[in-house]
Amino acid sequence: MNRVRSSNVGYPRIGEKREWKKALEQFWAGKLEKKAFLQQIEEIRLSSLQKQKEQGIDLIPVGDFSLYDHVLDTAVMFGLVPTRFEYSGGKVSLETYFDIARGTNGAVASEMTKWFNTNYHYIVPELNGVVPALVENRPLQFYKEAKQKLDIDGKPVILGPVTFVKLSKGYEASEFKTIVNQFVPLYAAILRELQEEGVNWVQIDEPILAKTISEEELAVFNDVYQQLHRAAPNVKVILQTYFESIDHYEEVISLPVQGIGLDFVHDHGQNLTALKTYGFPKDKVLAAGIIDGRNIWRANLDEKYSLLEEIAEVVSKDRLIVQPSSSLLHVPITVKNEETLDELLKEALSFADEKLEETVILAKGLQDGKETIQNEIAASTKAIQALNHSASRNHTQVQEAIQNLNTYRAEREAAFHVRQEVQEEMFQLPLLPTTTIGSFPQTQEVRKQRLNWRKGELTDAKYEEYIKAEIKKWIEIQEELGLDVLVHGEFERTDMVEYFGEKLAGFQFTQFGWVQSYGSRCVKPPLIYGDVSYQEPMTVKETEYAQSLTTKPVKGMLTGPITILNWSFVRDDISRYEVANQIALALRKEVETLEENGICMIQVDEPAIREGLPLKQEKWESYLNAAVYAFKLATTSVQNETQIHTHMCYSDFKEIIDAITALDADVISIETSRSHGELIHAFEENTYSKGIGLGVYDIHSPRVPTLEEITRNIDRALQVLNPKLFWINPDCGLKTRGMDETVAALAVMVEAAEQTRERL
Ligand code: GLN
Ligand code: ZN
User: Where is the Cobalamin-independent methionine synthase MetE C-terminal/archaeal domain (predicted)?
Assistant: First the structure.
């Protein structure tokens, strides 16, 4: 073939209306027979392939589909089953596969962690001395399926050996090379069988190349790919990278593979610079990722075409493949089904299917000449301009405020030790004050009431009354439990980002814009499409009401600017940091309004602060500086007496303790149950000297903790932390827990606090 080809890197699994999720959950619940389940899943898989074929994609990925996670798929293909699960060799059963992912009564699930800098989570393979074996050639199986059933000559996608081992655990760093070498013959066998089958192209994903990698690791790459090339010289391997530029461009393009896949969207221009500086080998193809696989905006085809032309100056067209920058796993499937969005916004969106359309258009344009895609280019420019010129993106007040950020004080009035004194005076809290993280159980009943209200079956007044009754009930429960600092319970919120998104200008919500987060769990991130601005108080009514019922302090509860940013699809016509500052200014107003209305403790949650860390370490500092600034912009205008809290969870915060300190919150509560005490040591080394609550029990399980357990956790923390600064709280919000277990667990926690106080 002598023309410019189009390709896809990976397609979402979940189905246009989450059919995949529904099938999985029914199967797990025993409501769907295995056979029927597998049948439904096959339909989803094949219809996704068929769609790509109809779109005109030349290289259609196969084997990227998964029943849970592609890293787990790779692990089970090599028979890597942790010994706590039943397994006696051979192909891993469907049941065992799900057990590893989800755990069983007797065996905990494998750990789950974030896939690079995305919100997708993969199952961490456990190597632990298990000798890998090729128990199933998945890529081959999916290749054959697509060929036989749809007459598609697919491009098998495989997670590469270096990245796979790098993402696994259960070995020492010094064993890295040896372990990778255990896998090489297995990969070689896969490739050989693909070669025998007559497979043309294979995509081997090595996203680890987009991180900062060492010389030794680079040498491992060289060695591995030499061996794979020798094993199957006739399959054309595309070594695929994504999410960032590659640091070792010259070495990577010299590896013995037939194609290199580079991300030209999230590379900060560095892949293009390298391409122009060092050229590109004449005997390889370049798979150029130029359509954003991570965001949902329509591509400006004019700009994309120019980018392609620049690339084509270095790489001849017959060696050029046009594709999305990464797998489309990270975006929803299609804009087509959306019925409630503003037309203006809808026109400016592009989900997976639309992205593939853009890919095909660009490949065709490059082949046949720009004039042949003039209409498509014009349509994209028009849609993007219309959104850019709309009132939503031209909010003068917001833009002026952003221009004049220096007029906003982004530091507290006084230093922490001064605030600490006035706050002590003001709140008169006991030593080791007890509190919770914000939410109380969102029971079936709470959800039902909200749904009815949304459907219009419940009036605003009735719904409000219901929420008030819940608040009152829980203020009484908290009083009875003897907690020191109370919360209103967040009953009016479905989700900590959605709630604020619905109240602030600049956000819209899709109907079907779901993306996989982990396993069958999907999230529907809000779209931040316009200037974000404050419209009206968002949390004041509920908080004020809660405070009116008690003499104890009630903490106001907000979601921080960085978490809102990181859990949304964010407009890309201005910088993310500017968007964060817009959100921060709106929250600042809310903080001030709460304060004016007598709320003297305000918690601003930032659980997602670590998630936004750039892949390359050299970029961490600028991200963290911006994150700290946005948080402070939101929180520092209050008086010294007002106590600012923050809360973090879901990740390992050891590496960013300096940034956490720089937030200058008066009190921070952090999840510890998943950090195995390492966090405490980290805080010890850094002698954190502001208020701190290290979660004293894990809220992820319904089990009620014992007095001894909680006491042990408190004592362990007090060995390193100043008791005058220590708070006692659970790990995270209690939204997902039941009522009885929550009350029981909090009673134990309060008891443990009281006993400890007496001992001190
Ligand atoms: N305040 C929120 C809650 O309690 C915090 C949630 C979170 O940390 N993810 O639910
Ligand atoms: Zn939390």
Answer: 432-754
Residues 6+ positions from 47 with CB-CB distance below 8 Å: none
Q: What is the pTM of this model?
A: 0.95
Percent of the chain whose predicted confidence (pLDDT) is above 70: 99
Question: How many angstroms separate the Cα of 373 from the Cα of each of 368, 376, 676?
Answer: 9, 5, 57
Q: Which residue's CA is the nearest one to ligand 1's atom 1?
A: 438
The ipTM, to two decimals, is 0.99
Q: Does 490 appear as a known binding residue? A: yes
Q: Is 605 annotated as a binding residue?
A: yes
Instruction: Confirm if 634 and 587 have CB atoms less than 8 A apart.
Output: yes
| Nearest atom, ligand 1, residue 735 CA | 10
Q: How far is the CA of 732 from the centre of ligand 1 (A)?
A: 6
Instruction: Work out the burial of residue 1: count CB atoms within 10 Å of its CB; fewer than 13 is exposed, 13-18 middle, 19 or more buried.
Output: exposed
Tens of pLDDT, residue by residue over 73-124, are 999 999 999 999 999 999 999 999 999 999 988 888 898 888 999 999 999 9
Nearest-5° Cα angle at 166, 682 to 248: 105
Amino acid identity, residue 558?
L
List helix spans (H) across 328-443.
343-347, 352-368, 374-389, 396-403, 416-427
647 is in an annotated binding site: yes
Residue 557 Cβ contacting ligand 1 at under 6 Å: yes
CB under 8 A, 24+ apart: contacts of 461-464: none
Query: Rounded distance, CA 296 to CA 33, Å?
Result: 36
732 lines ligand 1 (CB under 6 A): yes
Ligand 2 geometric centre to CA of 556 (Å): 15
pLDDT score at 151 = 98
Number of continuous H segments (helices) and E segments (strands) in the chain: 27, 21
How remote is the CA of residue 608 from the centroid of ligand 2, in Å? 9
Which 8-state DSSP code applies to residue 612?
G
Concerning whether 700 is annotated as a catalytic residue, the answer is yes
In 10 A of CB 453, how many CB atoms?
A: 18
Does residue 259 line the site of ligand 1, with CB under 6 A? no
Query: 605 CB less than 6 Å from ligand 1?
Result: yes
DSSP annotation of 732: S
Interior angle at CA 563, CA 560 and CA 568, nearest 5: 125
CA distance 26 to 145: 25
488 lines ligand 1 (CB under 6 A): no
Torsion of CA 330, 335, 337, 343, to 10 degrees: 140
pLDDT at position 700, please? 82
Q: What is the pLDDT of residues 129-176, one digit of tens each?
A: 899 999 999 999 999 999 999 999 999 999 999 999 999 999 999 999
